[in-house]
Design brief:
- With 183 residues, the protein is an alpha+beta fold.
- The chain is 29% helix and 42% strand.
- The chain is globular.
Length: 183
């Protein structure tokens, strides 16, 4: 498991969930066309270079040793605390919808939305995953503008490597457009 993969996976999804002034609730969030339609109604994030920083708020991994859990927590804390950047291109923005989300952030196959809602400048979504030895939920919520976002991600996942154990992790991340993408 790579520490930065969760952070970098969440970045494009977070920007794709940018909310608008009127609320949208997707009736069947398992339908990619409904997600794409709802996302099409939302403001488009500005293309450019984004800085991403974060904080690990909660980390539990029952079933493994205290030293091993402490090491894992330390890796996640260090990965989230270090500022990273990514380039949101016009092409990435133009792909839109469920297809854009799954391609741009490497969402594992077997993950799908179970709820999706926007209201004002906030969003709330849930995904259920059941693939590649991972099973669980991801809840995403936050507030946004066209160039910034504060997001909270709560994950509760079972992994074949943990036996009967589950990993619970809560992260808070901040995204800020810092300029144009480097050529």
């Amino acid at each position: 498991m790579r520490v930065n993969s969760y952070l970098m996976a969440a970045a494009p999804l977070a920007l794709a969930l940018t909310a608008c002034d009127s609320g949208t609730v997707v009736e069947d969030p398992s339908d990619p066309e409904q997600i794409a339609e709802a996302m099409g109604d939302l403001p488009t994030p500005q293309a450019g270079e984004y800085s991403v920083t974060g904080e690990l708020v909660e980390f539990e991994m029952p079933g493994i040793g205290e030293d091993e859990a402490g090491m894992m927590r330390g890796l996640f804390e260090a990965g989230l605390a270090s500022s990273q950047t990514f380039c949101m291109t016009e092409e990435m923005i133009g792909e839109g919808g469920q297809d854009w989300i799954t391609k741009s952030q490497n969402v594992p196959q077997g993950c799908e939305f179970t709820s999706y809602e926007t209201t004002g400048n906030s969003f709330d979504a849930e995904m259920t995953c059941n693939a590649e030895g991972n099973e669980g939920t991801m809840n995403l919520s936050g507030t946004v503008s066209a160039t910034t976002q504060d997001m909270r991600t709560e994950m509760d996942m079972a992994n074949a490597m943990l036996g009967e154990g589950r990993m619970r992790m809560v992260m808070e991340t901040q995204f800020e457009r810092v300029g144009d993408c480097a050529s």
